[in-house]
Predict the structure of ABC transporter permease subunit.
Amino acid sequence: MNPTVVRLAFSSLLGRARSLGLLALPLVLLAVCLLARLAGGEPQSSDGTLGRAVLSGLGLAVVVPLLALLVAAQLLGNEMDDGTIAYLLSKPIPRWHIVVSKLVAAITTTLLLGAVSMALASLILDHTDPGKALGWAVGAAVASVAYSALFLALSSMTKHSVVWGLMYLLVWEGALATLLEGISWLSIRSWSTRIAGWAGDMSVISADSAPLGYAWVASGVVLVAGTVWAAYRLRGLSITGDD
């Protein structure tokens, strides 16, 4: 990891006005939970029907992956698209240092905006059980790490990473997940939900969910594989940033 690259990555994320749009996603999640709480009048269990629909169906399925996708695209995809990645490639810095540094910035940003907002959303629904809020935060943290690595690798492969990322979320983790039970074994959302249920001692898992150990291992594999692939792709780029 290179501290200078990390600093530049955070500057890229926080120094642009359009980055404020990232805040809209967690704010929407919190607003939905607040409306649900006000409409119900009493605390809503975060592992009940409503809590599962909001925190898993909206938080883990939409907010966290979209945050990771937008952050990864801005940190690497946009730089490869406009050619500014050539500035880093021209420096005597190993390519894997660049990837790891950007991954650290991506994970940190997604964690702060995603995992923290998931914990707050759970507390809004039911402030009497902080253990469940911690569980959702842990699940969101695992999802943040895995999605960041996946979308960073995707950003290293194509200039249209946002489009392909959205297709992955809509088709694979969305439509197909509702039709094919086996998708849960290859779904980051399913793994993170399984881990959230374990961490918060909640009954949010379905009968076809992958085992807990598999969920941890699979998330780690995505992290390592995504990082290695992104570094490999950067090694294949010329100094001008051409594919």
Q: What stands out?
A: The radius of gyration is 18 Å. The chain has one domain: 3-235. DSSP finds nine helices and no strands in the chain. The mean pLDDT is 81.
